[in-house]
Specification:
378 residues, alpha/beta, Aspartate Aminotransferase, domain 2, Aspartate Aminotransferase, domain 1, 7-stranded mixed sheet, 5-stranded mixed sheet
């Protein structure tokens, strides 16, 4: 029987159905660290499609999760990891001293920190591109360039990059350069970088893929089988694999990802339309879809006032959960970025990053109103 081609929504909901034992609709969790071998041949097989022997190599729930992640991102192979930074490390694991990375200048602060570590300790050089003229990006490529790293929208300034145009230009310069895209903000619901021409997709699965502020995880999805094989060897060696219980939670969460993303978008659009009407908010940046909104306050003191007086929205790091969160990147997520770089980009003590949750958007707006004028409340 030919398998029907399902939409992304159906693929997400059906994850694990018909793959568990005893006709289970939801894929069961197997909490085992090791498995009995059927014989010596099975014990010697360490391929990705082999049976189960040791949980670091594969577990039933993690394998189903990885298969579903690959389908959602239109890739050949996915890897579920213990954190988003573990995913970044896996994605760049093939680099060697003397190799070069060209990256968008506005990125998650942890990625900045890791690129700096590679430059200092591994002899891997990196340069930045402002995301505007693709010709300027190509001008920075050299025979040593191995990776072009993008976020779109970027964190926290919401820069949007034409991934398809970048991939075409980079691969015309050198087909061997890997275009890598952090797709954490938009998820495959709104953006599938591999279809657009990228080579690798990275996620902090802690964020929207999980969506409930209750697990730590990462994902890497690739479309090239040779690169997948290289990653597989490193993945097993380092042991940064996602634990079975977290894999079960993440697989369950993916079933509601399309529905959640639509509501995140609806709520964020409401706030993006109404926040500029409030006194003290001088700029609102919203990419049009997804749940991430950045806003600039009239002063650092007013930004601190808002953080101190919000009652519904939690002042906390991370993003992508059903509960709304707000952070101040200058002091939190991007604290390791040099001060002059932060200020040049526009990451100032006045900039706040809002992860819009699934609460009633009118309640979220009211929370901002009372935080901006807490003395007016009875």
């Amino acid at each position: 029987m030919t398998k029907a081609k399902w939409t992304l929504e159906t693929t997400a909901v059906q994850a694990g159905n018909r793959q568990g034992a005893h006709g289970a609709i939801a894929m069961p969790i197997t909490l085992a660290s090791n498995y009995r071998h059927d014989g010596l041949a099975a014990a010697r097989d360490f391929s990705p499609a082999a049976g189960y022997s040791y949980a670091r190599l594969a577990t039933p729930i993690r394998r189903v999760l990885e298969q579903n992640l690959a389908r959602l991102e239109a890739g050949q192979q996915a890897f579920a990891l213990s954190s988003g930074m573990a995913a970044v490390q896996l994605a760049l694991s093939f680099l060697r001293p003397g190799d070069e990375i060209v990256a968008l200048d506005d990125l998650y602060g942890g990625v900045f920190r890791y690129f700096g570590y590679l430059a200092e300790h591994a002899g891997i050089h990196w340069a930045t591109w402002d995301g505007h003229e693709i010709a300027e990006l190509v001008a920075q490529l050299t025979p040593h360039t191995k990776v072009v790293w993008l976020e779109s929208p970027s964190n926290p300034l919401m820069k949007q990059v034409d991934i398809a145009a970048v991939a075409r230009a980079v691969h015309q310069f050198d087909p061997a350069i890997k275009v890598m895209v952090d797709n954490t903000f938009l998820t495959p619901v709104y953006q599938q970088p591999l279809i657009l021409g990228a080579d690798v997709v990275v996620h902090s699965a802690t964020k929207y893929l999980s969506g409930h502020n209750d697990l730590l995880g990462g994902a890497v999805i690739v479309k090239d089988e040779a690169l997948a094989a290289t990653y597989y060897d490193y993945y097993l060696m380092t042991g940064d694999t996602l634990a079975s219980f977290d894999a079960w939670l993440l697989l369950r969460s993916l079933k509601t990802l399309p529905v959640r993303m639509k509501q995140h978008t609806a709520n964020a659009r409401y706030l993006a339309a109404h926040l500029p009407e409030l006194p003290g908010i001088t700029k609102v940046i919203y990419p049009g879809v997804g749940g991430m909104v950045s806003l600039t306050m009239a002063s650092a003191a007013l930004a601190e006032q808002v953080l101190d007086h919000l009652q519904l929205i939690s002042f906390a790091e991370s993003l992508g959960g059903v509960e709304s969160l707000i952070t101040i990147p200058y002091y939190q997520t991007h604290a390791d970025v040099p001060v002059e770089t932060r200020l040049a980009l526009g990451i100032t003590p006045c900039l706040l990053r809002l992860s819009v949750g699934l609460e009633d958007p009118a309640d979220l707006l009211a929370d901002f109103k009372q935080a901006l004028a807490p003395g007016d409340e009875p």
